[in-house]
Amino acid sequence: MEKIIFKTADEVLQYAIEREEEARDFYLEWAEKVMRPEIGDVLKEFAAEEAKHKELLENVRRGNDFAHAGSSVIDLKLGDYHRETDIHHELNYQQALQLAIKREMVAQQLYLFLASISENGKHRELFDGLYKEESKHKERLELMYDDDFMREN
Amino acid sequence: MSLKDVISPFYAWKKTLDKPYTIKNPIAEREGAERYRGFHTNDVEKCIGCGTCEEICQNEAIDMVPVQGADPQRGDSGLRPKIDYGRCCWCALCVDVCPTGSLGMSNEYKWVTPDAEEYGFIPGVDIKPWNGAEKGYKRSDEAWLLRPGLKNMPVVEPEERRQTFDEMALGYNDNLALLEANRCLECGICVEACPTHMDIPQYIKAIRENRLEDGLQILYDTNPFSESCGRICTAHCQDACAMAHNGDAIGIRWLKRYITDNTWQRRDDILHGDNRITEREKSVAIIGGGPSGLSAAYYLRQQGYTVTVYEKHDKAGGMLRYGIPEYRLPKAVLDREIETITRIGVQLKTGVAIGGDISFEQLRRENDAVYIAVGAQKGTAMPIEGMETPGVYIGVDFLDRIAAGERPDIGSRVLVVGGGNTAMDVCRSSVRLGAAEVSVLYRRTEKEMPANAEEIEEAREEGVRFDFLVSPVRISRLETGLRVECRRMKLGEPDASGRRRPVPLEGSEFTLDVDSCIMAIGQKVDSSMAHGTDVHITRWGTFEVDAETLQTNVPGVFAGGDCESGPDDAIKAIADGKKAAWFIAKYLQAEHN
C-alpha cells in the first residue's frame, strides 16, 4: 500500500475530496456501460451523491463543520456480511446497491485506519468526521436495500 | 238545576288550594332514567357508515348521508346516519344492531324548536347538548342482535395433515354455510376492499336463498379464479368486514368456496351455456399464463377478441400452481378453472418463452395488443457466503420443484429464512417432506411478519418453530449437512420513516447445524424478455405503466399483476387482469374507430 503522509488538514481534506471524485467518476463511467438504462440511471444517482459528498467536504475545507456532526447512525451491518460484488454490464439494482454499500465500507475503513495511525490531533478529528460521513452514506444505502430486498426478512 | 250543579263551582274552587298532583316544570326537574331511550348519539370515529341501522329501522326514520370530515376510505363508506324524529319510534333496534357499537341513545328527551325540519339531524355531527352523553341506552352484549362468532371451516387435524400434501381445509357443509351466510349484514363495505370488487353481499345472499348458480355467475363477473381464491385469497374483504370490529369477520372466503364446491361440475353450462361469442377481428397476445394473464384472457375472449396466452412453463397457473402447495390449493382445482377459460376459445401455448422461442417484437407485430403478465417468480437470494453450497435452496425454486411432482431430500433438520407467505409454504412443505425439525428464522419480530396470521398459526400447529430477531450471515458445508452462522438482532430506534430496523447485537453470533437451508426472503420480476425493446422498465425490474389504464409507454402494450407492482397477492393480479381487459378493449375499439 502506498504510504500516505499528510502535512496539513487541507491535505487531508484534499485526499478525501479526490476519493469522492474517484467514486463519482467510477459510477459515471459504468452508467454508460451497463446494459439496462434504468440501472444506468441508478449509477448516475450514486454519482450525484458522491458529488454532493465532495461539495460537503469542500464546505468543511472552507472552515465549516461536518453537516451530520453529532447525529446518530443506524448501522444495519447488511454490507458486513455481503460477498464482494463485481461491477459488470448486466448489473441489476440489488447488485448495484450491494456494490455501493461495499464501496462506502471501504471508505469508512480507510478513514478509521487513518485516524488510528494519525499523530496529529486535528487530523484525527478530521478522519473521525470523515468516518462518520461515510457511515451516514452507508446507512442510507443499507436502508434502501432493507426496504427493497429484505421485505420478507 | 240539581244540587250537584249548585255545589260544583265551590268544589272546583276548593281544588285550587290542594297540592298539585303533577310537577310544575316537569322537563327541567325530572331527568330521564339511566337507560332511557332518548335522542341518538353517535361516535363518528367508530361509525363506519355501514347503514345497518338504516336497514333495520322499521319506520324508515334513518337515512345514510355524506358528512364533511368523514371521507370514504377502506372499511368506511364516509356516510353517517341521519335520524328523522317525525318517524322514529325510539325502539332502539338501530342501537342493538350496530356492529361497531357507535350508535347509542342519550337519556335526553327535551328538544323544543319552532323549525320542524330540525328534527332530522345527524347524531355526533350536528352539535347538540346530548352529544357524547354517558347516560342513556347503549348496546349491550346481551342485547346485540348480531352473532359475532365465525362458523369455523373444518380442517384436517395437524397430526394428520403434516404427513400429507392432501388438501387440509374440508369446506363448509350446507348447514355451516347457511349459518355463516346469515351473519352477513349486506352493508357492502367489503366490496371496495376487494381489489376486483367482487359483489360479496349478493353472492352471500345467493347462498341464503339457495341460488348457487346465480352465486357462481356473480363470482365470475369479477373473478374467474373464484374456486382458487375460495382457498387461498388473502381476503382483504374480511379485514374490512363490519363484523370484525366487535366480532369475527364473515367467512367470506369460505362462503365463496361453498358456491364453487357445489357448482364446479356444472360450471361451464351455468356460465356459458348456449352463449355465443360475437367474434371481433382484433387479436391480443398475453405473456404469462398466471392468474393475471388468464383473467385478462377470459374477459377479453368474452368480448370476442382472439386471445393467445404464452406460458413458459409446461403448465399454466403461474404462482397459483408453482408457488402454492397442494395442501392449500389442489392442482385439480386450478386445472379445471383453467379449462373453463380455455373452453371459451382462449388459446394457450405452454412451454413457450417470449424472448427466447418467440421475440417480443414478433408478438407485437402479429397482434393488435399485448398484455405482459409474467409475474415475479424469481427468488431473491441473500448475497452471503455459502449460498451455492449444496443443501441451500431458494424458496420459490423449492416450491416449483414440489409442484412439478418432485420430493427433494431435505433431510431431517431444515432451516427456513424469511417471514412471508412463501416462507410459510416452504416450512409447511418441509414438514410434509418428513423433516423432523423445521425452524423459521426471521430478522424482525412476529409483529412485523408479512405472512398471514392464519398461516403462521397453522405452521405452529404443525410443529414449526419460530426464532425471531435472528439472521444468517454465513453458510458452510459440514461433512454431513450445513453450518449456518447467525447473529441475533434487536429493534433499533425508529428511523425517519418511523420504522424500527433490526440491528445486529455485538457478540451474539451462534451457529446452527442443519441438513438444509431454504431462503424465502422475497421475489423479483424477470423482465428480461423486454430488454432491448422500447418498453420502460424500472430499476426494480417491474414494468412502468399508467396507473389508470395499465398501458406502458408503448401504445398497445399493457402490463399488470406482480410484474408491474412487484410481488403481491393473487387477487390483486386477477383484478389487474380484469382491468387490463377493459382498457385493452377500449384501446382496440379506439384503434378500430
UniProtKB/TrEMBL annotation, chain A:
SUPFAM superfamilies: Ferritin-like. It comes from the Bacteria. Pfam families: Rubrerythrin (PF02915). Gene3D superfamilies: 1.20.1260.10. Residues 11-60, 96-149 form the Rubrerythrin diiron-binding domain. GO terms for molecular function: metal ion binding; oxidoreductase activity. InterPro entries: Ferritin-like (IPR012347), Ferritin-like_SF (IPR009078), Rr_diiron-bd_dom (IPR003251). PANTHER family: BLR7895 PROTEIN (PTHR33531:SF10), RUBRERYTHRIN SUBFAMILY (PTHR33531). This is Rubrerythrin diiron-binding domain-containing protein.
